[in-house]
Amino acid sequence: PSPHLWSDIQVVPPHAGHKKVLVTGAAGFIGSHVAEALLERGDEVIVVDDMNDYYDVRIKEGNLAMLREKAKKVAQQAGKAHEDILSIYRGDINNETIMRSIFDRHKPRWICHLAARAGVRPSIEDPLLYAKANVLGTMSMLEYSREYNATNVVISSSSSVYGESESTYFSEAEDVNEPVSPYAATKRSGELISFTYHKLYGLKTTNLRFFTVYGPRCRPDMAPYKFISQVIRGDVIEQYGDGTTSRDYTYIEDVVDGVIRAIDRPYPYEIINLGKGSGTMLKEFISLVEKHVGKKANIKFMPAQPGDVPFTNADISKANKLLGYSSKVPIEEGVRRTVAWFKESFDEV
Ligand code: NAD
Predict the structure, then answer these.
(1) From the alpha carbon of 32, which atom of ligand 1 is closest?
(2) Which of 195-200's residues contact partners 24+ apart within 8 Å by CB, and which partners?
(3) What is the phi/psi pair of residue 233, to 5°?
């Protein structure tokens, strides 16, 4: 798209200084990395997560344990108590009693809403579960943010909203009103509801559309985790489709950088792609995994799955202009680092 599409948007400079940030879903993959980076730079972090069993809860407990350790280290260096920089709550964002007590107690002004039921395929099995967590949950977060005068709300959306878009590069200027899975529909709903909160109440919200995020601590239900662990173990890989489907795999460090840039810049209302900026075919991804693991993959070919889109390519020029974001980790380097993490973390693989 031509740059004039956002030439009229006033670029918001970063808000410097210490922040108290409520991170929802911080026991999860992206949330734990964002919370860790916020602690590292000296912010106070409040975490809420319901620790649901969408995948092994021990992974989420491990992420929280890592955050506690990080807080202890950072607090010690700063001569503070770790309780003053990290508070962790187990609770559903739809539980009003818990959420009000968190907002009453901490009065966070910076909200980073990453809690959600993720995953396209399981949303087709249980759409209502996705609606409760992602639609009602996001609306609840917006409502508390409004009532407690939040300065900025960053919300995780997804590339899945682009559905079966035929554009070579997905741009925020596209119409995205034909979501092809319940998951995508719930993510699009979050974007729409936050527009209403901006329009009616002046709440500042930025919706970030993530594109297939991978890296250390990645989600076990996602392709990168499955492929790497299966190649390491010599297990069969189920490859859906002919391997030419492509994804804009984005390394976690880039996503964390983009999320923090968005937290720091309270735009009145924006939707911004956060991707690498180019797709990689499934078969190329698998051959990079083979190269870095040092083993051949044992592939079983399966039919393409309903709800899966043929390709995702992020146009990241808006993120570049509004957030100063650029992707820094190339696919091969990201795969190399992720494989290294697997080898360090799992004795059994
Ligand atoms: P994740 O499942 O690892 O993390 C989400 C966390 O939210 C989990 O720890 C979960 O327990 C928590 N959660 C879910 N429902 C909750 C509720 N009702 N109350 C409180 N906590 C709840 O997933 P992730 O990959 O870290 O994704 C983070 C966000 O980014 C999600 O909104 C997801 O939809 C979005 N996203 C992720 C990707 C990706 O590639 N990982 C791509 C696009 C969008």
Answers:
(1) 26
(2) 195/269, 197/142, 197/145, 197/146, 198/268, 198/269, 199/269
(3) -80, -15
Ligand 1 pocket residue status of 191, Cβ below 6 Å: no
Does 116 have pLDDT greater than 60?
Answer: yes
Pairing mode, if any, of strands 280-281 and 20-24?
A: unpaired
Model ipTM over 0.95: yes
Number of H helices, E strands in the chain: 12, 13
Catalytic residue flag (residue 183): yes
130 lines ligand 1 (CB under 6 A): no
Q: Look up tokens 């995948």; give the residue.
A: 55
**Among all chains, which residue has been given the structure tokens 């809690």?**
115
Of ligand 1's atoms, which has the minimum distance to the CA of residue 49? 21
Q: Alpha carbon of 70 to those of 64, 83, 183, 231, 317: distances in Å? A: 10, 12, 33, 31, 34
From the candidates 183, 251, 267, 325, give the one annotated as an active-site residue.
Answer: 183
Pairing mode of beta strands 152-158, 205-210? parallel
First-to-last CA distance in the chain? 44
Note the pLDDT tens digit of each residue in 29-82.
999 999 999 999 999 999 999 999 999 999 999 999 999 999 999 999 999 999
Other CB atoms within a 10 A radius of the CB of residue 29 amount to: 26
Q: State in Å: Cα 287 to ligand 1 middle.
A: 28
Buried b / exposed e over 80-93, threshold 16 CB at 10 Å, is eebeebbbbbebbb
Nearest to 186 by CA among 122, 138, 222: 138
